[in-house]
Design a protein that fits this description.
heterodimer; A: 479 residues; mainly alpha; B: 427 residues; two-stranded antiparallel ribbon; 73% helix; disordered C terminus
Chain lengths: 479, 427
Amino acid sequence: MSRVRAIAVAQLRLFGRSRLAVVALVLLAMLSAIAAITGAAQASRMAADRATAQVAANTEFANQPDRHPHRMVHYGTYALRPLGPLAAFDPGVDAFAGSLIYLEGHRQNATTLGAARESSGLIRFGQLTPAFVLRVLVPLLLVFVGFAMIVAERQAGLFTLQLTHGANAGELIAGKALALAVVAGVAALPALAALGWSAAQSPAEAGIAALMALAALLWLGLWVLGITLVSARARSAQSALMALVLAWAVLVVLVPRAAAGVAALAHPLPTKAETDLIIHQELRALGDSHNPNDPHFAEFKAGLLKRYGVSRVEDLPFNFRGALSAEGERLTSQLFARHAADTAAVQMQQHRLLALVGVISPAVGFAQASMAGAATDLASHIAFLDAAEAHRYRLIQSLNGLHTYQVRGADDAARNKDPIAERQSRVSARFWADQKPFQHAGPTMADRMAGMLPGLAAMLLWAVLLSWQLVRSGRQEQS
Amino acid sequence: MIAALAREWRLLAGPARLGLIVLAALASVAVALGLADAAATRADIARVGALEARETQSIAAFAKGDAGEFGYYRNFPVWRAPGDLAFLAPARGDAVPAVMRIRILALEGQINDNETANPELLLTGRFDFAFVTLYLAPLLLIALLHDLWSGEREAGRLAALDSLPRARHRLWSPRVVLRAGGVALALLVPLAVGGLIEGTAPLRLGAAAALVLASLGFWMIVTLGVARVHAASATQAAVLAGLWFAITLVVPAAAHLAINAAVALADAAAIARENREEVHAGWDRPKAETMARFVALYPAYRDQSANGTAFEWKWYFAFQQLGDDAVVTDSVARDAGIARREAWAQRLGWLLPPLKAAQTMQQLAGSDVTADLAFKTQVRVFHRRLREYHYPYMFGGRPMDDTDVAGAPDFATFLSPVGTNGTDLGL
């Protein structure tokens, strides 16, 4: 073991003498620092902006004057997607997923906002975040630093010389790999420090942050193993470099994009406009609230009259119009929920296809694991959409409840003609303040950890494969 | 020359040939995906149009000629039809919808709606022709040309080759022409086929091809410059890969951070809330006040009044418009901020030719930020056209008969050259 360490130390000295390697490492450290600092600043500002906007929306709702409850159904409120503390490390899909939804009666609105719509086209080139540094930049740096470490010595005859002096090929390879692993650790340090700093801000996140750090180290470990392997097997330093740059370009740049293209093609998503139109169509088949003779609503009315043993809606012990609104909302929301579930199912199919590709390219697996850990993945976004819709439905039905039980039917019927009835159809403002504001804590810790598993498994599989190949290479060199 | 090229093709190593073939295959797949995307977007737009027509019929059944009912319930599709070069960098599945439905109600709450896209796919980026040309092709070019001289030197042949009479003309030029030309052909042939299938205007197709050549030309000059330096082929490869990496990945990402930090935008959530406050305050304000403010904007309806308790559509639509009016300056200024961010990115493009090539390709495809913003402007103008078409019915109390309903502005005719003359675009 001490010999492995000695070889590693000697190799690290060699790395230190290479000007290219040192300059690249320093540049990377600077980029990492920029990514970490701006990432932390941006994420905390965005998180604060959203929290402020959520409070403003809640306050405005609570401060509305005495009103007819149905007016509040249309006034609605807003839900903002909260940003967890680890988003500073990996903002994930945040820039591409809308962060604001307007919640109102009768409608399920699209999300709005999102950094992708308010930035220059440069955002399509990728965002400089600590996670991006670890996923994309550090592996290429390791390629540049380590491609020649074994093959160059063999080309110069040094490798054989060392073997004839009693060195063990396995130990030599292990020592080189260890030296490259140290470089990887140093290169990853600023990004991991950023992760640690984010976790320190909220200790509850420490466990998942540690798992994310482990995923990052595993990912870089794959590159250490792969680079050592290629350098041990290549015929020339140049061919080692070409093979490694090609592998990087294919695994990190090409395959994820190609997989996304295939996923979009294999599981097409309908447009929001089309889904909305189909919902309208299905709604008309269920019951048309504009049609006084609609069978569904006629049946609903007859059922109520029968249950309360009265012959006219005016004789019901509550306001029939409010009950009708609640029934209409129930029907539309059923359809919203079903179509939202369909959309989410297609998106998750696309996500799973990418996860499968993660077996071919662990870059995809690492990205998915990192985002899942940071609660900035697709599943977190879908969880937010579901929470927003659940809140919308609860709020609207609560307002419809006020309409049913706090507004007298006679006032409600006459409010368009009689100013006094109009006044009396208004409900006290205190009811608005009583409504529970939107709250969404994001996915649970268990869900986030579970989301990391496929990516971790894919990377482990690769680690085993590469280690096995490396051990074989050592044996071949020895004989 | 032909004989020299044929000789160079025979001399080309197996992996290099394979590289060219793979690039041609990737470019072809990218073009095919782009064509499929453009076709799917056109189909989306057509389906929404057809469904909307049916929806309008069912609204007509209960609206019974009431312009207010139409104004409230009727949606009008607006869209961005893919152009004849959309296949280069298609926008299907982007956050910005390719087709959306707008109502005559306050526009501010509608115009920023996102498509139900999968953000994970958007984050990954697209596999399209622009990506193959601007990311992958330079890498292959570098691989083929970086050791043009150092490779021969390391093989011990350089002095002998250079001593051949007219070596430059007979050996090096054909070698560069074959390798760079191979990369160019691998891209240009799929591009040309895509253009033929789409029926792209020859001039625009020529511009796209020129862009491909300009991008390759830049990388060829850089690669040959580095290859000329007396250094080990591995060092040259490392330097070139590092340059590629810096230019296509690091600098744009860092510049994105810097630009967004330098150009602040107004808080969109606050604008949305202000719009809602203005619209809903209309319910609580005296009707006469709302009507007076509206009539100041549209003096033609001076003699219209609304008062009393009864609900009136004209008053409702008047305060919808006042809500938009209250925030339109902020909202347009915010879009101008986004345009400023894009302008900075474009300026950076002049320093980094590959970036400029990417930006220009997005422009040709119609999927750049400027096109997004132009679409928003079109929608604002179209929304105004729609409102003003319905106002005489709402404010004059005139019923809308079937011809009036059918005669409402249509985005298709709005988009035709006659529909978008310059004077209308002033907001």
